[in-house]
Write a structure and sequence with these properties.
- The chain is α/β, with parallel strands linked by helices and 233 residues long.
- The protein contains 5 helices and 14 strands.
Length: 233
């Protein structure tokens, strides 16, 4: 059931969770997916995709869709909107607020910690992100200190390769990159660049393209379902 979840305090240490949407596919989820939206959007955006994934009823899943904080975004004239971090320039090499993307990745880590605290094994937790949310997912997944189940990067770019290094924990992290060949917001060349940066860092990834703009299409959703079944079954 989807619904806004209030911020809560973990272990009394003032580590609060961002407001978020939750969709449980059954009464006892043993696998979790934490999915970050794009710039100016919200955690509601990808909720309708969950039933389209047609995951088997034999395994209960929890989908968590955090809402990014609202902040001024420089490339949008300083307009305040949901944003994981500020973007100073939309040139091909994005110039971003590094401190803010690190803070957003830390917020994602707190969601992972919360799922582990309620009994989900870290290897049964996937991170996913679209566009700006994908950049956060890269940073969060590649710096988390425990083994995760996988990373899905959709129509996005790897903003912080210099801050991520391969470790024994994340060396074999399954990574799926998906991008539209006609993406007018995040050019597909940035998706290819992300894959090259991963390879330079020692990671391998699966790369899929679709005849689409900066969006999501049904063939892509089918590929997401296939990939998630391999990771979460």
């Amino acid at each position: 059931m989807a619904g806004a979840t209030r911020e809560r305090v973990l272990r009394g240490d003032l580590m609060t969770l961002l407001p978020h949407e939750v969709v449980d596919t059954g009464p006892n989820p043993s696998h979790s997916v934490i999915w970050m939206h794009g710039l100016g959007a919200s955690g509601h955006d990808f909720v309708p995709i969950v039933p389209e994934l047609k995951l088997p009823a034999s395994c209960d899943h929890r989908f968590i869709f955090p809402h990014a904080p609202e902040r001024p975004v420089t490339v949008n004239g300083g307009y305040i909107m949901p944003s994981w971090y500020d973007i100073f320039s939309m040139e091909l090499e994005r110039e971003i607020d590094e401190e803010q993307i690190l803070a957003s990745a830390a917020a994602v880590h707190r969601f992972i910690d919360a799922e582990i605290e309620r009994g989900v094994a870290s290897e049964n937790i996937l991170l996913a992100g679209f566009s700006q949310g994908g950049a956060v997912a890269y940073q969060a997944a590649l710096t988390y200190p425990k083994r995760l189940g996988g990373l899905m990067a959709m129509s996005t770019y790897f903003a912080t390769p210099q801050l991520c290094k391969q470790t024994e924990v994340n060396a074999r992290l399954p990574i799926l990159i998906q991008h539209g060949t006609a993406d007018s917001v995040v050019p597909e060349s940035l998706g290819r660049q992300a894959q090259a940066s991963l390879e330079a860092g020692g990671w391998s990834s699966e790369y899929k393209t679709y005849a689409m703009d900066h969006e999501v299409c049904m063939p892509q959703i089918m590929d997401i379902s296939r990939w998630m079944l391999q990771r979460l079954a």
